[in-house]
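Before a colleague's protein record goes any further, I have to sign it off. What it holds is a sequence and that sequence's fold in token form. Would you go through it and say whether the fold makes sense for this chain? The record follows directly below this note.
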Amino acid sequence: MSTANELKAKGNEAFAAGNHTAAIDFFSQAIELDPTNHVLYSNRSASQSSLKKYTEALADAEKTVELMPAWAKGYSRKGAALFGLQEYAMAVATYQDGLKHDPESALLKKGLSDAEAALEHEKDGGAGYDDFASKMSNAFQGDVLAKIMANPKTAPYLADPEFVRKVKDIQANPENMSKYMDDQRITVAMFTLMGMGDVFAKGADDFMNDAAEPKTQSTTQSKPAPKAEPEVMETEEDASEEDKEAATKKAQAAEAKEKGNAAYKARQFDEALVQYDNAIEFDSTDITLWNNKAAVYFEMGKYDECIETAQQAIEVGREYRADYKHIAKAMGRIGTAYSKKDNLDKAIEFYNRSLTEHRAADVLTKLRALEKLRKQREEDEYLDDEKGNAARERGNELFKAAKYAEAQAEYSEAIKRSPKDPRNYANRAACLTKLIALPDAIKDCDKCVSLDPTYVKAYTRKANALFLMREYAEALDAVEEAKLHDKDKKNSAEIDQTEYKCYSAITEQNSRQTPEQAIARAQANPKIAAVLANPIMQNILQQMQSDPRAAREHLKNPAIASNLRKLIAAGIVRMG
């Protein structure tokens, strides 16, 4: 079985021979055996670019940079792939990043110059791809062989009869060019004939090997042409000792990380910590190693150590420009650790910070739950029945002085201090009615009776608010509830007065409309229309027409009585 180095050597030979498809295959096999070798991805990227598979070339170049961020050649590969994809602005940025690592790299400088020129041309309204495609199709027109002979780089190719045959075949039919794109000499000749030899110099000499030397020189030349010197693909020896050491450490870190992951899943946390520490010793720039170590501390219940390690993860991530998702994860874990320590303020702070880095659904859910819990705790800590009673008494004095807004504020304070005392809601409802905040007054009355269903004043105050809203039927329903709970008849006078007031208003309202008008309005009111459509109510109304005394029996049923009051208030049923 071949080793990764043997397969790489075969790939280099195939590349040099212009057989890029085979080169890609050899490099791919080598990568399977040695997936952390940045040189293999770099070489395969060059082969992909040679076949104009720029998307695949870009992926390999990005992997090269990921494995060896300080290696300038990786940025050259990436820039070349982006240039091929016509992403000139991104290519410029990539070459600039590469020059930060190797400011003297002629390869990167040349790539940057070409990318900037192409970008400027594009901004100036350059013809772009369509113009380029047109040049390609016309490149092999005219006296092609003479033009190839005139160029020192392409002249040696004419010594090979097979090359000449391919050129003539393309001349006969330009579409045949695609059949010969795996021959690097055809690509070089095409760019030269298009007058783009300088641009291609980057594309070929710097990241695509020139074709192999022709075996013989032309005997018709008066002066030997210089030989084309193909680029030598990277080998392990091409990388510096420092680079090789860095790659070895990354591989060792990856191996230790896998062992740590396995131990973590088996809940062998002490072993996991040992392995993650080993991995960090090999590669302290990888934020995921710090994040994983923090996760172990969290599972062990060592929340202070978890927080400290996650903070280190954030610092590493910032320094080495890690993905924001990893930084957000570290912040989220700090938030969860603080939550376990019952420090809600700190937990909420770090959840919010995490969400500014990356909006993760699980962190958002945790944040909302903690905010709700904190609010509940704050409310619970504020509870004090004695202070609540004092606030209510202050509200009563202000109400008597007709200072309703101030009184409302005191009743609200009383509710915060003592939220289960129904008197606070009933008193605030009286204030809100005076301030004509009638829907809010009704809500307070409903809250009051939910705490104490026998609180008669809540029903009478609700009836008064509904009366002011001209909801007479509903006001009468509240009056009936007040009667039901007024066992000792202490509030009978107020209840009777409110009931009389409602019926008087109904009588006056009905006097201003004919029965026909009342029916027309009732049909436009969904509540009244629903009562009229009820078959039981229809039978009752028919009985009342033939025997008015039947109404007394039906009024003993609360539901029927409520529906009849609705019809009375609407003017459909008229009394006496």
Remarks:
- The chain has a mean pLDDT of 83.
- The longest helix spans residues 241-265.
- The CA atoms of residues 459 and 482 lie 5 Å apart.
- The chain has 31 helices and no strands.
